[in-house]
Amino acid sequence: EDQVTQSPEALRLQEGESSSLNCSYTVSGLRGLFWYRQDPGKGPEFLFTLYSAGEEKEKERLKATLTKKESFLHITAPKPEDSATYLCAVQAAINTGKLIFGQGTTLQVKP
Amino acid sequence: DGGITQSPKYLFRKEGQNVTLSCEQNLNHDAMYWYRQDPGQGLRLIYYSQIVNDFQKGDIAEGYSVSREKKESFPLTVTSAQKNPTAFYLCASSAPGQGLPLHFGNGTRLTVT
Q1: What is the pLDDT of residue B34?
Q2: In this predicted model, what pLDDT tens digit does every residue of B17-47 receive, in sequence order?
Q3: pLDDT band at A37 (very low <50, low <70, confident <90, very high)
Q4: Given pLDDT bands bounded at 50, 70 and 90, which one contains residue B101?
Q5: Disulfide engineering: B34 pairs with which of B46, B56, B63, B79, CB 3.0-4.6 Å?
Q6: Do the Cβ atoms of A32 and B99 come within 8 Å?
Q7: How far is B82 from chain A (nearest CA, A)?
Q8: Model confidence over A43-52: pLDDT tens digits?
Q9: Which residues neighbour B39 within 8 Å (Cβ) at sequence distance 6 or greater?
């Protein structure tokens, strides 16, 4: 069964304290892995797509990496405005019309 | 600006009543989706449509219905048969192709009492 698991469930950081969020997946033929940011009461906002192991994408303080079993979202020197829930999702080769989402990691960055 | 509009933002209904959530997009996307989000759980797919006049059940379609009469619109009806309808509902769209991301609206929070 296709599955996505994110850890930790919640993460509290001090401003400037770098860390990583994990997304482990099992899927029958990965077409793409997606990272989203979600603010309270809002819809998810697209951040990155990764297609194959070894691929990396960067945007400001965020860097996403992908292996054959997991993806990491690295946050370098975070600021309070980076506080949000980060969602990971995979698109399987067979069910191309669907994304399978993890439960998310809620990040709080304190000044 | 192109985007997805969901309305209303908040919706309150009495148990036993059907309710329809609106979703409109002007991104010219072929595919549209409805997801449900509950606290501590990942988004779960209710229904999706890849072309007009065609749609497929997702993982949790029981108690829901949809229509796709226009490319821009994909309304979701939460029927009285849905046992736990209180949730945050998200509509999304995507262009066809490999690995293209979903674009989400800002959701409708439905409360049924």
Answers
A1: 97
A2: 999 999 999 999 999 999 999 988 889 999 9
A3: very high
A4: confident
A5: B46
A6: yes
A7: 22
A8: 999 999 999 9
A9: none
Read off the DSSP letter of residue B75: -
Give the residue from B39, B40, B76 showing the smallest Cα distance to B60.
Answer: B76
Q: Is A80 helix (H, G, I), strand (E, B) or coil?
A: helix
Could you tell me if B5 lies within 8 Å of chain A, comparing CB atoms?
no
Q: Are A33 and A49 in contact (CB under 8 A)?
A: yes
Q: Are the beta carbons of B107 and A42 separated by less than 8 Å?
A: yes
pLDDT digits (tens, 9 = 90+) for A58-108: 999 999 999 999 999 999 999 999 999 999 999 887 666 688 999 999 999
Q: Do B42 and A87 touch (CB under 8 A)?
A: yes
- Find the closest chain A residue to B46 by CA distance: A98
- How does strand B108-112 pair with strand B10-13? parallel
Tokens of B50: 């890849």
Distance (Å, whole) CA B43 – CA B34: 10
Other C-beta atoms within 10 Å of A92: how many? 17
Q: Which of residues 24-53 of A touch B (CB under 8 A)?
A: 31-32, 34, 36, 41-46, 49, 51
Query: Which chain A positions have a beta carbon within 8 Å of B33's beta carbon?
Result: 97
